User: Which sequence fits this backbone?
């Protein structure tokens, strides 16, 4: 029987109650279900007492009446509900409402004796809360009686104590918690202020802090309600617009009726609407969608902060910043919020958004809805909310799965929104909870005498078991069972079927019992939330002890071992750490599974949850960290990481990702728990800067862990767990940057020895340590460095924040400068690589480094230019210079960097030749210009020329500048802007000469000419550029003519771009008006105010002179071009605008009269001296405002680098491998290495014990932590644990079912006889007729799986790309599952083509910009500065071809535009990790 997740739908909720109903409503529905005749003594008693009280005090309003008021709230739920069902005529509710209003009346209270009057008022407010819970009837009654104004009278009255006001607020909160109450509160009666306005007035009066907090909690609820109303309004509006479209044949698309009914034609509807042309529905404006996204994000934010901002604080608590102890009893805000969501049909609205093409295609809408849904699914009440709205949820999941399937079919990742299989996870979670409700309701119905294995029960358990077959389902089952008391359903089952209840034979045979064992084991293994184990550990351990023959239960016992007699409190920390220390040698073995549980519990007890806005800081977490340190936690956790690394290294080198599902879950769980604990400890320790932490085992272990877990993901991008591990590693390394004492004077020595520098040294030196760590090291460095400025933001950033951003970057620059030699070595080592992912990462890192401050920018650019100098000067003097593929790679690197602001200005600074000692750069620049003038015909030379012209284009682009022109007052003048962003006069002259010489040269390639024309268009935008162009045109007057001739003679559809650019250039120099555009005619171009108008121009007669030669006049050439364009435009409509340009220019030239020579009357514009690089960095533009986040930028952020054309043939180099091996591996013994990695068991005598490396002696971790006041810290001599554990000694393959501690094989010999053999080994040897020799450890048991060993590492299955080994990341072929449920998750991400990984920029956009120390790095591109600023002009046509990532285009020989994705999962090429070899 297979489990098809799409086959199952949710059904109405059983057993559990609906999360937004009040206790009173639940009680009424329970009584209705049971029927009136059912014996219900509690309710009858309560109703009798309530009736008595109401009858007794009809008139009396004295002390006894107040006592009666205080008693009533406890009787309402049972008593009033019974009365309402039985005796519908009696109006008990009306009488209670009257009493309530009298009790709230100050006049009545003042007549009471002292003390009694306060009691009366408090009893009145409590009664309001109780009655408000009585469903719609109760609230309506109170509202009609004017309860809101009654409460406000009390709140506004003089001399009312804070505690009484808090009670009044509680009552008001109860009233508005019902939707009817909220409506009345927000609307107000005629000519009266609404409750909301009154509340604001009250808060603005001088109130105590507790009263203000209570009032603002009510305001927050109102805001939440209003946001939902606005979303509903927008949703209805969308539904109306879309239902009026022709494609939607359904007449009733109203959210209330149309969507709640499950519609059988729904799927076709969605299909139709998805394929519909989005333009048809574009009557929904971008602004509305943007507003919708903001509202959804606001809903998410308010729900996340609700427990701290929307509840009425307990009377004894005080709203301080931090608390040590405090009343834990807190209201739960969520039932109320769910009630609001329900009344606004929120799930139906979300389904609608996911079904309308214009919103479902918008990544912002998808991400925002997914955040809200994911948040709801995290809690039990949220899942129950989904299940109580089961019809809407079924449709919603279908709509979500539609995206998931679409992605799978196309083999693409969408914008990373649904890529973590959230749809399936939500589906599996709701299905699991449905199964749990079935189990609980089964126990309610059945009695003990019934047959044990009931068919319904087995069906439910079997479904649960099938869900766990796939990893998404497994995590969903683990998640749901760890919520509240869900696990109790399985424990009840096991206790019922255990031996005591049924006797031995029956329980052994019981299928249900075995299912329950398996499921509980899965939950304990895969759920990191151990809170549920606190309640259930004792009963589970008891069950394990009772049944010693059940293998599953014995395994469960191992997992629960550390929880014997354990209370989850701070005091348990030392015992747990002791347990970890004792079992560290059994890490990742079946004996050591308790370690995972111990670490999870430590996390639960010692690590605070992520902080939420408005939350009080609980100081118990600080105490927990102190306990961790005193129990030697730091050292223990470092040892856990080192041990984990040593075990994972060997399989990782053989490309075995992480073994079986269980193995992967355990590895990830251990890594995450250990990292979280380390992060908590280090953050606390280094926060104030008063301590320094010099234990460099931490960064070195983290670097290795990152390499093993995060550098080569199977699917080509990190999944959410791997992403979290990477984030944790980055966060821990960044805590080292906090351990810098601000009071110390900064000198070279203190800089080099502080925590920050030591961490950097460790990370930088690890990059070049071993080839397998190259890529991982570069990713790690890139993630640590701040993002390049300017940031794109939708709101103004405060000056204080800007200075923090700039200072952060300067501090990074200072600390990196200490490691200058290492940085140079990294750039030099990787500069010649042909491995594209490493090229990509190198460029990214160089850009990040240059962007920090002027010293690092000059350091990096000097290194790159030095490499070019060395390469070009390496040929002997007399021969002509040889250009090799290495030269092209270096120029490609320079080209990629020159398109970035900071790098470009550093290059200009160096090639000016004004700095002493840097003259060689000016000379090399002239050499490159000479190369452009004489391209030659070799392919490599042509490539070099294209890169150099592209570099010139970046240097001449005034928009690539650190200080961007802004329309604000006091911005710099245009001439200053030009002097700071363009080459100086001498360089400009030689560049212009070079450009024109290239145009005149018949050998120049098409791409080269196109780039030159575009560069000239940049220069023609201002007088300074045009002046130098004109003076060069005087020297080289035939250049334009020869280009025109070439355009005409080679015109075709493919060369149309050159023709249109050239015509655009000529039109540009003819006009003296401001030219704001440089793209097609039909694009609407905006001219930014900062570009002043150009005064210089060339008139038509002068242009005619430049375009003609003795043989031909320009008119004839234009006529010919016109014919050609006309001919081609029949096939291609895009050429129409080109035709207009040709005709227009031809007419201008015809009407211009006789040709004239160029005038030389122009006045040369003189630029001021450029500012120093340091000043430019100090005054740089730090952020750019944009109305909406630029989608182009987002795509650069999220799209992993794609290498589409890998020209491996060009760079093949002959290598003598034998000579290389003699040189590098002279003492390498293959036989012993293989024996060591595969044959030795983890603790067999043939293996050196790694644990010796970890023994600490007497030193504790404190020696590494020095107070930075005393910086004379002395490193202890040759510390034992600084010796790294032997690499590659990890267990060759794990998850193979061998027992690591095989007592038989490891017993000592006490006789001279040859050693006996284990029977298995004997049989195996006999069948092969081989007798093992003495002394060689016997081999492991043969595996009980089919071993078709392939040529690579011994794995079956397709080894294309890094597909997966079967389909799930298991080691060996998994046993056939009971059902052939296809493992959908195994083959995601076919967009990962052969070697194109950049797993640096994953989609979870990380880190806000508040402290600017990290975030997703936009892959940068040589398209000028478009990546970072909304450009004043249409840039697409000015750059070098399409919008693909620059690294891709820089590497291919051509500058043509790139596609965004690699073609589907077809040619998946060589093994992805081959470059780390």
Assistant:
């Amino acid at each position: 029987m297979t489990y098809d997740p799409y086959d199952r739908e949710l059904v109405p909720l059983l057993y559990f109650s609906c999360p937004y109903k009040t206790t009173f409503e639940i009680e009424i529905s329970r009584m209705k279900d049971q029927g009136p005749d059912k014996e219900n003594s509690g309710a009858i008693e309560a109703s009798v007492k309530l009736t008595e009280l109401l009858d007794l005090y009809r008139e009396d309003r004295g002390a006894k009446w107040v006592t009666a008021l205080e008693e009533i709230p406890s009787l309402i739920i049972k008593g009033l509900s019974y009365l309402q069902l039985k005796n519908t005529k009696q109006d008990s509710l009306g009488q209670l409402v009257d009493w309530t209003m009298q009790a709230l009346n100050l006049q009545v209270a003042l007549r009471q004796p002292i003390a009694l009057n306060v009691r009366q008022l408090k009893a009145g407010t409590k009664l309001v809360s109780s009655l408000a819970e009585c469903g719609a009837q109760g609230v309506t009654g109170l509202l009609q009686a004017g309860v809101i104004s009654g409460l406000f009278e009390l709140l506004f009255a003089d001399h009312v104590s804070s505690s009484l006001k808090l009670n009044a607020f509680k009552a008001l909160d109860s009233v508005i918690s019902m939707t009817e109450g909220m409506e009345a509160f927000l609307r107000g009666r005629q000519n009266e202020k609404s409750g909301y306005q009154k509340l604001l007035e009250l808060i603005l009066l001088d109130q105590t802090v507790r009263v203000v907090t209570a009032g603002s909690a009510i305001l927050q609820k109102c805001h939440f309600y209003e946001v939902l109303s606005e979303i509903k309004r927008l949703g209805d509006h969308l539904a109306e617009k879309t239902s009026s479209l022709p494609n939607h044949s359904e007449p009733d698309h109203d959210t209330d009726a149309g969507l709640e009914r499950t519609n059988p034609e729904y799927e076709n509807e969605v299909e139709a609407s998805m394929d519909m042309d989005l333009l048809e529905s574009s009557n929904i404006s971008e602004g509305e969608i943007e507003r919708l996204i903001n509202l959804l994000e606001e809903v998410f934010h308010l729900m996340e902060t609700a427990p701290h901002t929307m509840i009425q604080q307990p009377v004894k608590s005080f709203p301080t910043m931090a608390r040590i102890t405090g009343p834990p009893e807190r209201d739960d805000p969520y039932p109320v919020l769910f009630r609001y969501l329900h009344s606004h049909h929120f799930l139906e609205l979300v389904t609608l958004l996911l079904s309308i093409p214009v919103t479902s295609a918008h990544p912002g809408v998808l991400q925002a809805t997914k955040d809200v849904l994911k948040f709801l699914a995290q809690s039990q009440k949220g899942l129950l909310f989904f299940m109580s709205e089961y019809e809407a949820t079924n449709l919603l999941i279908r709509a979500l799965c539609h995206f998931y399937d679409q992605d799978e079919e196309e083999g693409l990742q969408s914008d990373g929104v649904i890529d973590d299989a959230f749809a399936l996870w939500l589906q599996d979670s709701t299905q699991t909870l449905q199964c749990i409700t079935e189990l609980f309701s089964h126990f309610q119905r059945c009695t003990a005498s019934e047959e044990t294995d009931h068919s319904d029960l087995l069906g439910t358990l079997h479904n649960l078991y099938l869900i766990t077959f796939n990893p998404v389902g497994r995590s969903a089952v683990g998640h749901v069972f760890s919520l509240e008391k869900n696990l109790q359903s399985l424990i009840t089952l096991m206790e019922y079927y255990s031996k005591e209840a049924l006797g031995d034979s029956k329980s052994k045979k019981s299928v249900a019992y075995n299912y329950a064992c398996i499921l509980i084991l899965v939950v304990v293994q895969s759920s990191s939330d151990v809170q549920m184990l606190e309640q259930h550990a004792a009963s589970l351990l008891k069950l394990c002890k009772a049944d010693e023959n059940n293998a599953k239960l014995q395994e469960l016992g191992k997992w629960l071992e550390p929880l014997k007699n354990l209370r989850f409190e701070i005091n348990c920390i030392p015992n747990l750490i002791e347990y970890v220390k004792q079992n560290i040698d059994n890490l990742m073995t079946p004996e050591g599974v308790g370690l995972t549980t111990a670490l999870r519990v430590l996390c639960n007890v010692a690590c605070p949850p992520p902080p939420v806005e408005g939350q009080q800081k609980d100081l118990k977490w600080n105490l927990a960290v102190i306990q961790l340190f005193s129990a030697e936690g730091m050292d223990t956790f470092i040892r856990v990481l080192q041990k984990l690394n040593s075990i994972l290294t060997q399989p990782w080198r053989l490309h075995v990702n992480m073994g079986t599902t269980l193995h992967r879950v355990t590895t990830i769980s251990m890594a995450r728990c250990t990292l979280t604990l380390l992060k908590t400890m280090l953050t606390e320790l280094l926060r104030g800067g008063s301590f320094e932490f010099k234990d460099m085992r931490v960064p070195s272990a983290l670097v290795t862990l990152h390499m093993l877990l995060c550098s080569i993901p199977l699917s080509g991008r990190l999944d959410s767990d791997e992403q979290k591990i990477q984030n944790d590693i980055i966060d821990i390394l960044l805590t080292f940057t906090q351990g810098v004492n601000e009071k110390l004077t900064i000198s070279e020595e203190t800089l080099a020895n502080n925590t920050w520098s030591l961490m950097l040294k460790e990370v930088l030196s690890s990059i070049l340590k071993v080839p397998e760590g190259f890529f991982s090291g570069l990713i790690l460095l890139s993630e640590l460095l701040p993002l390049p400025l300017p940031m794109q933001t939708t709101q103004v950033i405060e000056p204080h924040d800007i200075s923090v951003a700039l200072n952060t970057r300067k501090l990074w620059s200072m600390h990196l400068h200490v490691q200058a030699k290492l940085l140079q070595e990294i750039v030099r080592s990787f500069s010649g690589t042909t491995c594209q992912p490493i090229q990509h990462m190198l460029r990214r890192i160089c850009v990040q480094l240059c962007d920090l401050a002027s010293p690092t920018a000059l350091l990096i650019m000097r290194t790159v230019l030095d490499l070019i100098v060395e390469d070009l000067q390496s040929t002997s003097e007399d021969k002509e210079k040889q250009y090799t593929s290495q030269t092209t790679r270096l120029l490609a690197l320079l080209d990629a960097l020159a398109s970035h602001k900071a790098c470009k200005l550093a290059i200009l600074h160096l090639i000016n030749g004004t700095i002493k000692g840097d003259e060689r750069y000016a000379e090399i620049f002239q050499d490159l210009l000479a190369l452009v003038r004489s391209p030659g015909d070799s392919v490599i030379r042509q490539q070099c020329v294209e890169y150099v012209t592209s570099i010139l284009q970046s240097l001449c682009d005034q928009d690539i500048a650190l200080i961007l022109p802004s329309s604000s007052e006091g911005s710099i003048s245009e001439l200053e802007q030009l002097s700071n962003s363009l080459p100086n006069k001498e360089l400009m002259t030689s560049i212009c000469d070079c450009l024109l010489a290239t145009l005149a040269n018949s050998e120049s390639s098409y791409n080269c000419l196109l780039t030159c024309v575009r560069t000239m268009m940049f220069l023609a935008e201002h007088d300074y550029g045009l002046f130098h162009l004109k003076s060069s045109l005087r020297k080289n007057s035939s250049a334009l003519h020869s280009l025109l001739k070439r355009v005409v003679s080679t015109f075709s559809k493919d060369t149309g771009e050159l023709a249109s650019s050239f015509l655009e250039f000529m039109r540009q120099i003819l006009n003296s008006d401001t030219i704001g555009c440089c793209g097609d005619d039909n694009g609407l171009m905006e001219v930014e105010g900062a570009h002043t108008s150009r005064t210089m121009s060339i008139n038509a007669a002068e242009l005619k002179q430049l375009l003609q030669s003795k043989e031909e006049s320009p008119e004839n050439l234009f006529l010919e071009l016109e014919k050609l364009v006309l001919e081609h435009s029949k096939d291609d409509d895009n050429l129409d605008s080109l035709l207009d340009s040709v005709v227009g220019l031809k007419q201008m030239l015809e009407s211009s009269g006789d040709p004239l020579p160029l005038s030389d009357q122009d006045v040369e514009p003189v630029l001021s001296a450029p500012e120093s690089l340091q000043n430019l960095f100090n005054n740089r533009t730090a952020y750019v405002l944009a109305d909406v986040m630029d989608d182009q930028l987002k795509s650069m952020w999220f799209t992993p680098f794609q290498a589409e054309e890998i020209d491996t043939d060009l760079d093949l180099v002959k290598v003598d491998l034998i000579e290389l091996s003699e040189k590098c591996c002279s003492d390498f013994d293959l036989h012993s290495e293989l024996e060591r990695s595969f044959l030795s068991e983890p603790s067999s005598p043939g293996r050196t014990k790694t644990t010796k490396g970890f023994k600490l002696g007497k030193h504790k971790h404190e020696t590494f932590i020095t107070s930075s006041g005393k910086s004379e810290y002395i490193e202890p001599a040759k510390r034992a644990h600084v010796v790294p554990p032997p690499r590659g000694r990890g267990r060759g393959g794990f998850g193979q079912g061998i027992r690591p501690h095989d007592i038989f094989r490891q017993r000592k010999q006490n006789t001279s006889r040859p050693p006996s053999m284990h029977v298995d080994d004997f049989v195996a040897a006999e069948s092969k007729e081989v007798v093992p020799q003495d002394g060689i450890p016997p081999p492991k048991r043969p595996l009980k799986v089919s071993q078709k060993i392939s040529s690579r590492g011994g794995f079956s299955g397709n080894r294309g790309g890094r597909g997966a080994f079967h389909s799930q990341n298991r080691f060996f072929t998994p046993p056939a599952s009971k059902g052939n449920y296809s493992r959908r998750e195994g083959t995601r991400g076919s967009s990962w083509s052969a070697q194109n990984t950049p797993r640096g920029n994953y989609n979870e956009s990380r880190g806000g910009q508040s402290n600017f120390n990290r975030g997703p790095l936009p892959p940068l591109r040589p398209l000028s500065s478009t990546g970072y600023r909304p450009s004043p002009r249409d840039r697409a046509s000015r750059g070098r071809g399409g919008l693909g990532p620059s690294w891709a285009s820089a590497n291919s020989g051509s500058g043509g535009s790139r596609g965004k994705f690699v073609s589907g999962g077809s040619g998946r090429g060589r093994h992805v990790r081959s470059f780390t070899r």
Summary: The radius of gyration is 38 Å. The chain has 63 helices and six strands. Residues 209-243 form the longest helix (35 residues).
